[in-house]
Amino acid sequence: MDASLTGAGAGAGVEETGRGGGAGYGSPRPDQRHRGGDVSEEDQAAAPTPPARRRIPVWQESLLLLGLAIVLALIVKTFLVQAFYIPSGSMEPGLEINDRILVQKVSYWGSGSPERGDIVVFEDPGAWLSAAEASGPTNLLTDAMSRIGLYPTGGHLVKRVIGVAGDTIECCDEQGRLLVNGEPLDSSGFTLNDDECDGPMLSTCEWDAGPVPDGMVFVMGDHRDDSADSSYRLRCGGRKGEACDDSDAFVPVELVVGKVFARVWPASRFDLLERPDAFEALED
Fold first, then answer.
1. Which residues are part of the catalytic machinery?
2. Segments making up each domain of the chain, as ranges
3. Are 226 and 200 within 8 A, CB to CB?
4. Cis peptide bond upstream of 211, omega within 30
5. What's the topology of domain 82-282?
6. CB atoms closer than 10 angstroms to residue 133
């Protein structure tokens, strides 16, 4: 086999040289001079032009971007942060009417739960709001505004957590302070009308609640005498030492949307909100 392959190769070489007409060994034929080298102008002109890339119309591109923005906003709102609008003065002085706040949901993921001192937004646990207060957006515009905190969402309240599972809350000591598990809560740094009795909308300062059931919290507004909160839901006889019916006074943790962490509008009132130091003294 080796001889056959060699002979074929030798014959091919001689034939190629003879056809070159003395041009020299290995010189290309005229019709081969542009093969593998630069492309001639004729070849360039004959080459097919690639089709132009089709561009998406502006209106379709705008709709696509809008759709992506809406999806992203819904993801953020559902799992991370949601904006709310303050429609009442029940949380003054910290939160005033028309303030816009941001609520983060990360703290309560998994085993996390509200702590004493947290300001929380929660769904109405049952007739805490009037029909007018509970009504949400009525059209597409107000619905869109509610999603970014420019219009009341309806059906939500904002209060401060005073007691968690196992806590007892009592009003009040000689200085008008709430007692949580028997310890006085100095709320002078974050409440309005703190010099008055902490029985916001009751006819008596003598009330108590708890122990708070598992999975529940006891909440109050910082504007003590203008907040329909847990203490307002107590049914008390008004006589000293008489127990109150607190069956409707607690908020299920599962209804808590999240913790308020920032006041973002008006810009002049922007602030990051933290739990008051007074609650540190109540830690177990």
1. 90, 159
2. 82-282
3. yes
4. yes
5. Umud Fragment, subunit A (2.10.109)
6. 16
